[in-house]
Specification:
With about 400 residues, the protein is mainly beta. It has one domain: Tachylectin-2, Chain A (5 Propeller), CATH 2.115.10. It has 1 helix and 20 strands. The protein has a 4-stranded antiparallel sheet with strand order 1-20-19-18, with no helix packed on it. A 4-stranded antiparallel sheet has the order 2-3-4-5, with no helix packed on it.
């Protein structure tokens, strides 16, 4: 499998490269505005006994002017309501409420049934939540796309294309364990929903490494009349990962790597922002570790619909070729580290991203948040950016 993906990579990278004759518009710009950090173990009166943490998805609620932040919690699944204010010089984040997810009868979901990751608001005012898959044991817990009301009450579960369903034991097809639907976004006009897999499906080839790329899938759903229906699928090229200079001299076999497409934000019906996060760690010795975080501009308008392709690794059966989405790097977080608060100049596990209100400089606010994994060694970090359309 690795050889097949490696052979495809060069051609796919060429497909991903932007071409002037395809799109003459200039990409938007992202500028760092401010950051806010929550230390591990910090408690807030508005949350009672629950900590603020595990934030894996955020959505702006225009009706209240507050943000909804989804906790990646496999027990006591919940989302927070946050006041996020930029006063012109500093960013302030304050939890003001908590809502628990529950079934239609008010009962909490059993532990490990939900592993919430992505959140988005529907045009009709409910919340969509996407989850990971858990295939550590039988019966497996499939990835899900669910709808809840704003009080956390479960409403319904939406259809997933069959190729995403885990089959076999050990699993031979479908979503990899803990690498499911991290990303979820609804287009501004409310007609499209995009759901992204964090990594390649089992049948689509191996995961991304330092040596080769992977192909994960983005599902496009049609949204209308209260219904959400699968419409198309697109291939997204992930990796290969650049070897960090800080680990020069370390053997490849002595490093752990976790790569993923962790969030999408729709700018239009065809253009999205994609958040990628690489976690690289030395297994022994100094056990150095680092997060690499980047935001890309993605265009699906000329990508091949691969919903009819059973395996992207063997995708030549689909007429000989397929074109993945186009990607263009907008921001590497390494470039903003010197601008961060002096005591927090280290990148964490960023997984959440959402568009908010207009900032004083006229740009649209983009909030990017880290998932602290409820760990005492990590933190919830909030980065505020200004997103502006570039003019010629």
């Amino acid at each position: 499998m690795a050889r097949a993906i490696a052979c495809l990579t060069a051609g796919l990278l060429a497909c991903c490269a932007p071409k002037a004759e395809r799109d003459t518009s200039l990409p938007p710009s992202l500028s760092f505005v401010a950051d806010f950090n929550v230390a591990p173990g910090t408690r807030f009166d508005a949350l009672g006994d629950e900590p603020l943490g595990g934030i894996s998805g955020v959505a702006y609620d225009a009706s209240s002017g507050n943000w909804i932040a989804l906790a990646d919690a496999r027990s006591s699944s919940r989302f927070y309501e946050l006041s996020v204010v930029f006063d012109g010089s500093a960013l302030h984040v304050q939890p003001i409420g908590l809502t628990r997810l529950h079934d239609g009868e008010g009962k909490a979901f059993p532990e490990n049934v939900l592993d919430p990751e992505g959140i988005a608001e529907t045009p009709w005012g409910t919340l969509l939540i996407s989850t990971e898959a858990d295939s550590r044991r039988e019966p497996v817990e499939q990835a899900k796309l669910l709808e809840f009301d704003v009080r956390g009450r479960f409403l319904r579960r939406f259809e997933l294309p069959e190729k995403f369903v885990i089959e076999g034991w050990p699993p031979e097809k479908g979503i990899r364990h803990n690498l499911g639907f991290e990303s979820l976004t609804v287009s501004p006009d409310g007609t499209k929903l995009f759901v992204g897999g964090e990594e390649s499906l089992l049948q689509d080839g191996p995961e991304a490494t330092f040596e080769h790329a992977a192909l994960c899938r983005i599902i496009e759903y049609s949204v209308g009349d209260g219904e959400i229906t699968p419409f198309a699928e697109y291939a997204y090229l992930l990796g290969p990962v650049t070897w960090p200079a800080t680990l020069n001299g370390v053997e490849l076999t002595d490093v752990d790597l976790d790569v993923g497409l962790v969030e999408l934000v729709a700018l239009t019906e065809t253009k999205l922002l994609a958040l990628e996060r690489d976690w690289i760690r030395e297994r022994a010795g100094a056990r150095r570790g680092l997060n690499r975080v980047r935001i890309f501009l993605v265009d699906v308008s000329e990508a091949t619909d691969v919903s009819g392709v059973s395996s992207l690794e063997n995708g030549l059966e689909h007429g000989g070729e397929f074109r993945p989405v186009r990607k263009e790097l907008l921001l590497d977080f390494d470039d903003i580290v010197p601008k961060l608060s002096p005591e927090f100049r280290r990148l964490d596990n960023f997984e959440a991203m959402g568009l908010g209100p207009v900032l004083p400089d006229g740009g649209r606010s983009l909030l990017v948040v880290s998932d602290d994994n409820f760990s005492e060694r990590q933190r919830s970090a909030f980065f505020l950016f200004s997103l502006k359309a570039e003019e010629k």
